[in-house]
Design a protein that fits this description.
heterodimer; A: about 230 residues; mainly alpha; Rna Polymerase Sigma Factor, Chain: A; elongated; B: about 80 residues
């Protein structure tokens, strides 16, 4: 757990694996093409490696478009689409983004039949939502510290952060997020995708992606706060 | 916390910049102001730490292996495709 207490100067921005390579590296394309060739040649293990890597994330994402019971089925449909379309994959996007586009198309098609389609481009545009409730800050007309913390957020307890209960709480808080926020946070923080990959797969702008991620993380933090506060620092 | 010519960021503004900071999309000036604020503000430093903890926690939600029955179904699908 990176609960760093390092001084500000040495705080490296970014969060490790999720921000290392914003673009698909060239070697990734070679690897994608190699994998596609292997699958087309009938290599079952190559197919399984893809499935192991993406299937669960696909089912969850499909769940944003179709009722939960249909998500697994839609994902299987998407895999059929992937296999049938493999000869058309040219490596212009990453294989991952290409697979997720197929999934989203399948899910949207099914979702529209079931009148539940919510495009990611029609996002919760509530940019007025604050990351932290305004009651936590001093008023804008405060003589000395306008807009500063009324009282600092309490440090979190390491012990509680490590508990299974806390993890379950994170999962619950994420489930309660508006769907676009939830999917972006899942792909970025749970699955470890880069922002470029998320934008490509969901067809949203970098700015939109950041707003969604920002709202999502802030809400999950807020949901955790009452349970994990009380550490010492 | 005011000692320069540029207006200081309020904590309320800083918490809204945290994601841009972590995503490295702040301009050089914004980033400097952000870090200067953090150097002096324990509350915002704690907030950033908590957001980082939240990210670390959510990363742990990534699940393990596929359920065997799902794996088998997908393999069947693959074999069928191959046979076509």
């Amino acid at each position: 757990m990176a609960m760093d207490s390092a001084p500000v100067e040495s705080m490296a921005p970014g969060e490790g694996h999720s921000s290392e390579n914003l673009a698909t590296p060239r070697s990734g394309r070679t690897e994608d093409l190699r994998l596609v060739a292997a699958i087309r040649a009938g290599d079952q293990r190559a197919f399984l490696s893809l499935v192991e890597r993406h299937h669960r994330a696909m089912v969850r994402l499909a769940g944003a478009y179709v009722p939960p019971g249909a998500a697994e089925e839609v994902t299987q449909e998407a895999w059929i689409g992937v296999l049938k379309g493999l000869h058309k994959f040219e490596g212009r996007s990453s294989l991952k983004a290409w697979i997720f586009r197929i999934l989203i198309n399948c899910a949207q098609f099914r979702g529209s039949r079931e009148a539940r389609a919510i495009p990611f481009s029609a996002l919760e545009g509530d940019s007025s939502e604050a990351a932290v409730g305004k009651e936590r800050f001093l008023d804008a007309d405060h003589p000395r510290w306008p807009g500063h913390w009324a009282s600092y957020p309490a440090p979190w307890s390491e012990d509680r952060l490590l508990s299974e209960e806390t993890l379950a709480m994170v999962a619950k808080a994420m489930d309660g997020l508006p769907h676009a926020q939830r999917e972006v946070m899942r792909l970025r923080d749970v699955e470890g995708w880069t922002s470029a990959e998320v934008c490509e797969a969901l067809e949203i702008s970098e700015a939109n992606q950041r707003v969604l991620l920002h709202r999502a993380r802030a809400k999950v933090r807020q949901a955790l706060e009452p349970y994990v506060s009380g550490g010492t620092r | 916390m005011t000692n320069g010519s540029t207006p200081d960021l309020a904590c309320k503004e800083v918490v809204e910049l945290v994601t841009d900071y972590l995503e490295q999309t702040l301009t050089h000036d914004e980033r400097t102001r952000f870090e200067q604020h953090l150097a002096l503000c324990g509350g915002c430093k704690e907030y950033l730490r908590e957001i980082r903890s939240t990210i670390d926690l959510s990363r742990k939600l990534s699940q393990g292996a596929l359920a065997p029955n799902v794996r088998d179904e997908l393999l069947n699908l693959f074999r069928k495709w191959k046979a076509e």
